[in-house]
User: Which sequence fits this backbone?
């Protein structure tokens, strides 16, 4: 398991990593690894044949990630901290008010439960 690969195999593996569409084509059954390796060995890495196997959307994906991250940072850059603190405070007050109203409705629904922790029994049993 710990064997070192032949240098040409290591180069081929790095070549395949740069051309991820090759992996998809082999999995679809259009090519075999043997065919691709032989073409790579004979034609070289710089042949025009390999251009179609480079990931077409890699630049788009990277630019989309950069745009997304840039938008996030620009949003945080434009945030007024005092305004944000005020909004958080308002939300906290609203939640507190809602909790108070719910508690009042629960007390109104069961007036005995608010005043006494245990329900009293209707009959009193005493020992003689």
Assistant:
């Amino acid at each position: 398991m710990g064997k070192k690969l032949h240098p040409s195999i290591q180069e081929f593996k790095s070549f395949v990593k740069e051309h991820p569409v090759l992996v998809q084509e082999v999995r679809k059954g259009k090519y075999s690894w043997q065919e691709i390796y032989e073409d790579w060995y004979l034609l070289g890495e710089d042949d025009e044949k390999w251009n179609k196997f480079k990931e077409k959307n890699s630049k788009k994906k990277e630019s989309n990630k950069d745009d997304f991250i840039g938008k996030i940072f620009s949003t945080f850059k434009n945030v007024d901290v005092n305004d944000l603190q005020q909004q958080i405070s308002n939300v906290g007050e609203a939640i507190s008010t809602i909790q108070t109203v719910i508690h009042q409705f629960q007390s109104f629904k069961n007036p005995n439960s608010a005043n006494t922790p245990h329900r009293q029994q209707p009959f009193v049993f005493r020992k003689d």
